[in-house]
Amino acid sequence: MDANHVISLNIVTPDGQVYSQDVKRIIARATDGDLGILPNHFPIIATLKIAEVRTLRADDVNREDAIAVNGGYIEFKDNVANIVANSAELAANIDLRRARYAKQRAEAHIKQAVAKNDPDYRRRAEVALARAVNRIHVYNDR
What is the C-alpha to C-alpha distance for residues 138 and 61, in angstroms, rounded to an integer? Predict the structure, then answer.
């Protein structure tokens, strides 16, 4: 495949590589808005929100991959994209029951934090809720 028409995408976390694929398109949510990256895009570094990353695979243009990415950053240069994330999970690997339980637990923790007037605990619970909701969304959107 012509290197000028594909992007080599790697997603890594502290636990190791989660995704490595040649893709035709990357859609990610940066902290300042959505990014759409096609081959030969200008170089960019951006911080990522807790959100879904979608790719259009180069080996099968009818196949999109969805990855739940929980923060981190994306770097793109010379048709190579690297996402370094706090955690990431392919839609096919998401345990929906576990994600729903995490959502319920986070919602309960938010209520506790509000009752105790503990803004730090509330913020951590809100991040946990966002991660769980992201995983559920990616699972349902696959």
Answer: 20
